[in-house]
Amino acid sequence: MRIDDQRIVHSLIRQVLPCALADGSVRPCPGVLDKLRTQLTRLDRRAEELAQARRTLRQAIAAAEHAE
Which site in 25, 43, 47, 66 is 20 to 30 Å from 4, CA atoms measured? Predict the structure, then answer.
């Protein structure tokens, strides 16, 4: 995990923790839902970047295998 990611996660935990209930659910607190959605969007973007990198790597491997 990158340092920036660690900071984001730590900050998010600090904001969500006071909103957590004993059963593990989260009650609505000001701004928390927006923060969770923002974090999910960032994760989705990174997942797509990784998926694209995997596709590119697979193509490079396939091209190299066919060149042998």
Answer: 25
User: Which pTM does this prediction carry?
Assistant: 0.63
Instruction: Give the per-residue SS3 of the chain.
Output: CCHHHHHHHHHHHHHHHHHECCCCCECCCCCHHHHHHHHHHHHHHHHHHHHHHHHHHHHHHHHHHHHC
CA-based diameter of the chain, in Å?
A: 60
For residue range 45-62, list pLDDT tens digits in order.
Answer: 999 999 999 999 999 999
* Torsion over CA: 38, 34, 20, 25 (sign): negative
Beta pairing partners, 23: none
